[in-house]
Design a protein that fits this description.
heterodimer; A: about 525 residues; Phosphoribosyl-aminoimidazole Synthetase, Chain A, domain 2; 2 domains; about 35% helix; globular; B: about 230 residues; alpha/beta; Rossmann fold; 9-stranded mixed beta sheet
């Protein structure tokens, strides 16, 4: 029966590693996320930290490793699109990108680099967000599984911060942006699957990005953040419509203590493909789509903003008070309803893995030469925004950005373990932390917080290393009082026969006077 | 910082996808002037001293009916359909000053206000870095004190290879209409290293490098040239 299938899809998708963090949540709970200037820690679209003068910084990092292995150009481009949306979803105007890349040492890796770089370049340049820094390393364990981690940060007035929540029954769920197609159907579970080299690679699960649409969405959303018309925003990323509409209601429940629910009319979803099924509509990962929780009273004003930016927007549902996730759609000319308790979707799902000791893989971990990195960063617009005081044109794993509006400068430093986690995961993450911390201190800035991207292999052989990494990161962050503001986990990195070395990447931000 | 003399009113034409809009706004604000945006749907000429077409990707370099619908790539074409282009064209015909930067320069060339055409960079890749540029000819906004000087200015474009046929080049050169050339390193393969040109009447300036991205000293020089010309 269709009903059962749909319900099963919803539960299965929301309980995938990508959406639920079921294997890693217990470990991530050890991270240090406190601080008097932390406005929002992990758990939202991005972390937010206070800068002073009424201004705040939204910060997050994301991986797009698996898609970039299959389709380097589109995989990397949509990775950039996703992380930019995470930032403006908070109401922040993005001001900088950083890309941290890892490639293998075989012939295929050489072919991946230009595609990944062009993907990042075409997307970021068009939206107009400078890539102010990054790093590239090579290791044979990245053969067939490159790492594409992109960090984005943006500025928002404290009073304009938007959260991914639905708080008030009766308010609108507004769909805005690209139409929904079959692209990326099942991407969330794709990212959680083992990658078999030589097996047919599912290129249909790779989405295509549209930076111009992203730019229009960015402008419209930042404009709306400056009004009192919306109570929430959520980007449609992994498991797009399903994840965004359930998450806003779930966060609403947590924040209000009320039995907030969501009702979605699937027939109203703008589509670009014929005859899409409810299942496809729910889990499609078509890019450049946003879910706006709009105050009912201001519906017309919100629609006016989208119209100005030439964006298609439709009221596709509403916030309810029944604690349910209700889908309404027609089937054979009849109206059908599918009702699931939100609690069923967001149960306490855990998957525990044996914490086996990491087995070192050895081999040489190589940093890309300045000649290679110059060829890369010259393809990125690193000055747009006119904030770049120290960019990729000068050496050093940090950037300095002008914050003219508060008379300060933002120092952004990044580092990974540089291959050291292979010998000892705890020492690896400690090295990465201390390096970023020293860059911030050397620049005479006060550390504000960091974002982390934890790239690991199969849980069977990597969860032990993962546990050591999070434990040590938690400890060292607490010791130095640098909170983790946000992050991302990428598991299942590897192809048949090998798994990648544990690869934690950190981006730390600090503030200094001019 | 407010300078001596009259403050300038400036309209910065904002197309969807113009991503140097705020940078250009700040460029003039830092000089104490009064810049404001002019939305691409505007049909009335603004009450200002100068029109600026900023850099970016107007309409994402596309032609479309609906932003969320199908499109094809043809940089600059969509902008020509914007109502504001009529304001721009009449402004140019009236001999009033216009500055086009990067994508703004491309649009001015496309609409025929400035001569030449643009191709993709010789490398086939987007290129962004600070490069040396030499001011010459009738200079930037006629400021003779800049002629012969080399400034380090950021360029960032994928289609910045300026082309002009040899007959037209001779005319431009002898008229002093080429006001900026890449000095030494040519980042895109432009003919004769051309980085900026002026129309025949001398009131419309187009340049690929971004003056708003320069260091404070250089920025002030470019701004002063505009101030002297407009006042």
């Amino acid at each position: 029966m269709l009903d059962e299938n749909l319900k099963e899809t919803i539960i299965k998708t929301m309980h995938s590693e990508h959406c639920s963090y079921k294997s890693t949540r217990r470990h991530l709970a050890k991270l240090y996320t406190q601080g008097k200037d932390v406005i929002q820690g992990p758990g939202e679209n991005a972390g937010v930290v206070r800068l002073g003068g009424g201004l705040a910084l939204a910060l997050r990092i994301e991986s797009h490793n698996h898609p970039s292995a299959v389709d380097p150009y589109n995989g990397a481009a949509t990775g950039v699109g996703g992380i930019i949306r995470d930032i403006f979803t908070m109401g922040a105007r993005p001001i900088a990108l950083i890309d941290l890349l890892r490639f293998g040492t075989n012939a295929q890796a050489e072919h991946l680099i230009p595609g990944v770089v062009k993907g990042i370049s075409d997307y970021g340049n068009c939206v107009g967000i400078p890539v102010v820094g990054g790093e590239v390393f090579f290791d044979r364990t990245y053969n067939g599984n490159p790492l594409v981690n992109v960090c984005c940060m943006g500025l928002v007035d404290e009073k304009n911060i938007i959260y991914g929540n639905a708080l008030t029954p009766g308010n609108d769920l507004i769909y805005v942006g690209a139409r929904t197609g079959r692209d990326g159907v099942g991407g969330a579970s794709f990212a959680s699957q083992i990658f078999e080299q030589g097996s047919p690679r599912d290129i249909s699960a790779i989405q295509h990005g549209d930076p111009f649409l992203e730019k229009l969405l960015l402008e419209a959303c930042v404009e709306l953040a400056g009004t009192d018309w919306v109570e929430g925003m959520q980007d449609m990323g992994a498991a797009g419509l399903l994840c965004s509409t359930t998450e806003v209601a779930h966060r609403g429940q947590q924040k209000t203590g009320l039995s907030i629910g969501a009702r979605v009319y699937l027939d109203r979803i703008p589509t670009k493909a014929e005859g899409m099924t409810p299942r496809e509509l729910l889990i499609s990962e078509s890019q450049e789509r946003m879910m706006i929780v709009g105050k009912r009273l201001y519906r017309d004003k919100i629609m006016e903003v989208f119209k100005k930016w030439d964006l298609e927007a439709v009221v596709v549902g509403k916030v309810t008070s029944d604690g349910n996730y209700t889908l309404v759609f027609s089937e054979n000319g009849q109206e059908r309803k599918e009702i699931i308790k939100l609690k069923e979707i967001f149960g306490n799902i855990y998957q525990d893995w044996p914490l086996n000791k990491w087995v070192a893989q050895g081999g040489i971990y190589t940093k890309a030469s300045p000649a290679i990195t110059q060829r890369i960063w010259r393809q990125y617009d690193w000055r747009v925004g006119t904030r770049t005081v120290k960019g990729p044109n000068q050496p050093g794993s940090f950037a300095v950005l002008d914050l003219e509006e508060i008379g300060s400068e933002l120092v952004v430093a990044w580092s990974s373990d540089e291959g050291r986690s292979d010998e000892n995961p705890a020492l690896g993450i400690k090295y990465a932390f201390e390096k970023t911390y020293s860059y911030i201190k050397d620049q005479k800035a006060k550390p504000l917080g960091l974002t982390n991207c934890l790239n690991f292999g199969y849980p069977e052989d990597s969860m032990g290393a993962f546990a050591q990494t999070t434990q040590e990161l938690g400890r060292v962050c607490k010791e130095y009082e640098v909170p983790v503001l946000s992050g991302n986990v990428s598991l299942y990195n590897g192809v048949s026969g090998h798994t990648i070395k544990p690869t934690p990447m950190l981006v730390m931000v600090g503030l200094r006077g001019k | 910082m407010v300078k001596k003399g009259r403050l300038l009113d400036i309209a910065i034409v904002r197309f969807p996808g113009s991503n140097c809009d705020f940078d250009t706004l700040r460029f003039f604000q830092r000089g104490g002037h009064n810049p404001k945006f002019l939305w691409h749907q505007e049909t009335n000429p603004p009450e200002v001293d100068l029109l600026v077409l900023p850099g970016g990707f107007a309409f994402g370099d596309r032609v479309y009916e609906k932003a969320t619908g199908s499109f094809h790539l043809d940089p600059g074409v969509q902008a020509l359909n914007s109502p504001v282009m009529r304001v721009v064209t009449e402004w140019a015909d009236d001999g009033r000053p216009i500055l086009g930067i990067c994508n703004g320069f491309q649009i001015l060339v496309h609409v025929g206000i400035l001569p030449g055409k643009f191709l993709q960079n010789e490398s086939g890749q987007f290129f962004c870095d600070d490069v040396d540029c030499r001011v010459e000819g009738k200079s930037f906004f006629g400021d003779q004190s800049m002629v012969g000087n080399v400034y380090r200015i950021n360029v960032a474009h994928g289609f910045g290879r300026y082309q002009i046929d040899s007959g037209e080049y001779k005319n431009l050169d002898s008229n002093g209409q080429i006001f900026l050339r890449y000095h030494g390193f040519n980042p895109n393969g432009s003919d004769q290293g051309i980085a900026g040109v002026i129309n025949r009447e001398g009131n419309v300036f187009g340049m690929m490098p971004h003056p708003e991205r320069t260091d404070p000293t250089t920025r002030a020089l470019f701004l002063e040239a505009i101030e002297k010309y407009v006042r």
